[in-house]
Every structure is written in structure tokens, then in C-alpha cells.
């Protein structure tokens, strides 16, 4: 086993892509300590290895109490078979049950698209240890714990408290608690609102646990995948600590989540022509259900201020931004111009933004979708105008294409190359104009 682990570690460190000649029936089985070392030292290589090879991990021998580890962290690195101690029903086993419950309990759940879809812009880049992910849409989740019903078994005089926990990759994991309700477990009312920011919802779970603070015992719980949470007002049925359904125990919740976007201030003209410096990411904001006091405050106002304009966030892949990276992912809106994109790309590369006029954004588009016939003659190059919107230009492509950031140099070869692109662009515009005149 030791020699097998060392050879597998050598393969992971040498190749970031899976070996084509490896047999699909070869399975690596390592304990949790070895799996954690691989996750820390070679995260991208480990995810690439599990594209074509099955890996299994199991609890370490030091767990003499038959306790379990959190399986989400190993799922996040692509490990397909995460073994747990089924004789101990704890939160880890609750998460494992919720994971496969979303697919009818058939025992198979597809990996997130970022790990298996080669067309995904984050494919080969996803590292669960990162704090920010340029190619993933984060969501702002708001949950209000309104009330509960029969949340403590065998007693109606318990003092319940609800803990809401997001279990996922390290940057998403957090927990919050409601206030305690004194001696009322029959129909306690909390009305507490919590806000969470989740960057990787495909492997995020919500755990609701009710604790009687009088005895400090867990009385009810429920774990559900975040993607299975239905928005709005819901009665969430609870389960016991052994994950058995409780016929009467529920908590009444209100939930809402929205994709993180970009707010543009109103009244400055930014809502019509956004500038890079005015883009502000939406943070954690309150989305609790409106109360009567809210309506009273609204009615008492003579003038209601204008809310900022919300713009959906899109991802744009730019080549040539950082020397040691093949491409860079930028977050833009549908109103972002080529000048905004250049400024954001320079900021990402830690270059002075005031030199944006020294750069141009070039689109390279293939004529047709057949990659087998890809040659230099089949690629057209065009320089985007500073006020042109890259997303609109991308929607006009009739083949595979990409955007390239290029610095305008003063040497003769660079000037000749730029002149050839501009001349070809003028010829295409002239041909389009002649075709339009003939049709009219």
C-alpha cells in the first residue's frame, strides 16, 4: 500500500492531466490523512487524476471511537468513493445521506460541471482552497427562521435554539444561531434572519439543528443540499439525531437567494455608460420578509430615494493579460465597454490603469465551427473600438473565437501588424456596406 501511495503521488506531481493509458479499473484506496496531504499539496493534479481514475478514502485507524470526517472536502477534490463509519450516525453521515438523497438514493451523483465539463471556463483551474473564484457565480443566501413546531421530543417546556450552518468548501463554511426561546418547544417563535455568501453552491449543504439549551442536547436536525432548497415560505420537516423522520417536528422558514451582481449608482450616468472604477460588488444585504413596521416607514416618507441599478455579472475570458497564465477571467456586465475591460485586465495584472490607452482589445474569430480546418487563413482579427461592448461583439461570432489584450508598441513590426489588421477591418466594413447598398 505504501509503495502504491508513493507512486500515485509521483504521478500527481508529474502530470496535471490524467494518463490516457491508465486502466479504468485501477482504484487507489488511501486513508483520510494521506488524502488530506494530497489535497493540500496537489489540489489541481488530484482533481485532474480523478477525471479518469476512481479514488477511495476511508477513516484513519486512529478513530477508535468510530467517528467520521466531513466528506464534503474530499468530494470537492473529485474523490468518488468516500467511506464512512456507518455504525456512528453523526453530522457527517447526515451529509452523506443528503448528498445521495437528492438523486433518489441510487448511489450515484454527477460531479459538478467544473470538474467534468471541459467547456467550463473554470475547468482545470478550480482549487477548493481558493478564497475567490473568477469563473463561478456566487449567490447571496438569506434565511429567516420564523417559528417551530414540536422541536423538542417528549417535552413542551424545552428552551430551543436553532443553528443554521452552511457546509461546503472552506470559504463557504459558516454558521449562525438564533436567540433562545425560554421554556417553549411546542411553538417557539424566533424571527431571526441570517445572510450567507456561497461561492460554490454545487457542493454546499444547509444544516438546521435544534438544541435544547436546558439540557444541551440535540433534539432535531435536518441537512439538505443548497441546490434542493426551494425559495419562499416553507415548513421544513425535521429528523432525529439518528436521522429518522419526526412526524410532527418542523421549522417554518423563509429563504431567498440571488445571484451576485453589480450595483451601478443612479444619477451619475453610470447606469448608461459604466466605468470600471464605479463597479461595486454586491455584498451581504438583508432580504428578510417585509414586516408591518417596514410598510409604516415607507408610508411616512415623502420621497423614496432611487435604488441602484442592478446589472447581471458575466464572465469574459481574455488572453495575454498575465504572462504565465494562458487566459484570465474577468467579471463584467452587458454594458461594459472594451475600455472598461482593458482597465480591469490591467488592474488584475497589477499594471497601472492609467496606461490603458497603450493597449487594444483584439478579437480573433474562426470562420466556421470546424476545428479540424483551423488555420491562420481561417481566422479573422479585428480591433475593438474603445466604446464597443465585447459581449455584443461576441454574440456576432460565427465560429470559435477569443479576445486578446495587446500592447501597442513603437517598433516597425508592431506598427505594420496593427496597420494590416486595421486595413483588413476597413476592407470588411467596405464590403458589408456595398452588400447592404446592393440589397437596398
Automatic annotation (TrEMBL):
Its EC number is 3.1.4.11. The keyword Lyase applies. Residues 323-410 form the Ras-associating domain. Residues 120-246 form the C2 domain. Residues 25-116 form the PI-PLC Y-box domain. The keyword Cell inner membrane does not apply. InterPro entries: C2_dom (IPR000008), C2_domain_sf (IPR035892), PI-PLC_fam (IPR001192), PLC-like_Pdiesterase_TIM-brl (IPR017946), PLipase_C_Pinositol-sp_Y (IPR001711), RA_dom (IPR000159), Ubiquitin-like_domsf (IPR029071). Pfam families: C2, PI-PLC-Y, RA. Keywords: Disulfide bond, Hydrolase, Lipid degradation, Lipid metabolism, Lyase, Magnesium, Metal-binding. GO terms for molecular function: lyase activity; metal ion binding; phosphatidylinositol-4,5-bisphosphate phospholipase C activity. It is an enzyme of class 3 (hydrolase). PROSITE patterns: C2, PIPLC_Y_DOMAIN, RA. It catalyses: a 1,2-diacyl-sn-glycero-3-phospho-(1D-myo-inositol-4,5-bisphosphate) + H2O = 1D-myo-inositol 1,4,5-trisphosphate + a 1,2-diacyl-sn-glycerol + H(+); an N-(acyl)-sphingosylphosphoethanolamine = an N-(acyl)-sphingosyl-1,3-cyclic phosphate + ethanolamine. GO terms for biological process: G protein-coupled receptor signaling pathway; lipid catabolic process; phosphatidylinositol metabolic process; phosphatidylinositol-mediated signaling; Ras protein signal transduction; release of sequestered calcium ion into cytosol. This is Phosphoinositide phospholipase C. It comes from Oppiella nova.
Amino acid at each position: 500500500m505504501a509503495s502504491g501511495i508513493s507512486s500515485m503521488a509521483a504521478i500527481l506531481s508529474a502530470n496535471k492531466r490524467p494518463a490516457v493509458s491508465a486502466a479504468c479499473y485501477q482504484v487507489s484506496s488511501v486513508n483520510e490523512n494521506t488524502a488530506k496531504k494530497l489535497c493540500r499539496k496537489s489540489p489541481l493534479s488530484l482533481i485532474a487524476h480523478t477525471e479518469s481514475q476512481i479514488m477511495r478514502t476511508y477513516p484513519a485507524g486512529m478513530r477508535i471511537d468510530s467517528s467520521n470526517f466531513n466528506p464534503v472536502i474530499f468530494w470537492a477534490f473529485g474523490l468518488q468513493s468516500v467511506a464512512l463509519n456507518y455504525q456512528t450516525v453523526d453530522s457527517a453521515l447526515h451529509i452523506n445521506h443528503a448528498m445521495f438523497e437528492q438523486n433518489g438514493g441510487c448511489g450515484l451523483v454527477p460531479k459538478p460541471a467544473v470538474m467534468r465539463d471541459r467547456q467550463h471556463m473554470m475547468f482545470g483551474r478550480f482549487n477548493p482552497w481558493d478564497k475567490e473564484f473568477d469563473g463561478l457565480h456566487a449567490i447571496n443566501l438569506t434565511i429567516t427562521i420564523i417559528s417551530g413546531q414540536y422541536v423538542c421530543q417528549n417535552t413542551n417546556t424545552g428552551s430551543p435554539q436553532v443553528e443554521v450552518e452552511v457546509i461546503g468548501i472552506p470559504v463557504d463554511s459558516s454558521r449562525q444561531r438564533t436567540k433562545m426561546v425560554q421554556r417553549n418547544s411546542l411553538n417557539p417563535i424566533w424571527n431571526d434572519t441570517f445572510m450567507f455568501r456561497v461561492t460554490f453552491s454545487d457542493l454546499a449543504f444547509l444544516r438546521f439543528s435544534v438544541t435544547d439549551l436546558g439540557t444541551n442536547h440535540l433534539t432535531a436536525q435536518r441537512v439538505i443540499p443548497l441546490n434542493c432548497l426551494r425559495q419562499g415560505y416553507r415548513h421544513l420537516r425535521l429528523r432525529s439525531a439518528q436521522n429518522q423522520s419526526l412526524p410532527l417536528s418542523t421549522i417554518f422558514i423563509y429563504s431567498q437567494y440571488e445571484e451576485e451582481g453589480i450595483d451601478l449608482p443612479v444619477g451619475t450616468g453610470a447606469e448608461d455608460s459604466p466605468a470600471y472604477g464605479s463597479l461595486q460588488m454586491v455584498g451581504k444585504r438583508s432580504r428578510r420578509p417585509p414586516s408591518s413596521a417596514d410598510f409604516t416607514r415607507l408610508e411616512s416618507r415623502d420621497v423614496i430615494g432611487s435604488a441602484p441599478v442592478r446589472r447581471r455579472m458575466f464572465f469574459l475570458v481574455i488572453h495575454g493579460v498575465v504572462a504565465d497564465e494562458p487566459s484570465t477571467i474577468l467579471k463584467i456586465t452587458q454594458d461594459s465597454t472594451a475600455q472598461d475591460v482593458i482597465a480591469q485586465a490591467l488592474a488584475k495584472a497589477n499594471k497601472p490603469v492609467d496606461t490603458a490607452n497603450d493597449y487594444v482589445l483584439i478579437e480573433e474569430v474562426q470562420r466556421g465551427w470546424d476545428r479540424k480546418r483551423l488555420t491562420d487563413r481561417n481566422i479573422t482579427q479585428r480591433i475593438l473600438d474603445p466604446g464597443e461592448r465585447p459581449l455584443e461583439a461576441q454574440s456576432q461570432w460565427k465560429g470559435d473565437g477569443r479576445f486578446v489584450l495587446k500592447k501597442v508598441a513603437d517598433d516597425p513590426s508592431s506598427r505594420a501588424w496593427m496597420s494590416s489588421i486595421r486595413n483588413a477591418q476597413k476592407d470588411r466594413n467596405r464590403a458589408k456596406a456595398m452588400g447592404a447598398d446592393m440589397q437596398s
